[in-house]
Fold this protein.
Amino acid sequence: MLTKILLTALVLIIAWHFLTRKRSVKEAPQAMVTGQSLLKRYGIIAFLATILVLGVGVSVWHWYDGYQIVNVTVSSPATGQSNTFQVRKKDIDGNLLTTVEGLQIRVSDQETITVSAN
């Protein structure tokens, strides 16, 4: 996840560099910056800032949501037993659960899993 944020920041820095670099000497200097080019520049900056803020927001929300603790009930139809465990959302991985206490639980295909919020 950190790699995604760093890669996004790198792309934005490169884009910022290309947008703000000085024009070549061959071009005639502009005496006056038009309102339209100024609006375009600030529009691009606002767009890039919005993308950056949204990317960071989604990453933070994904991290926050993964650490939410939920109750997982594992029911076995063969024995009729059901056990309830507290698990972080990020630690639910297919047939493998890791509880808050660190206990790893493998669930068979016949058992049912019910996830509920605290």
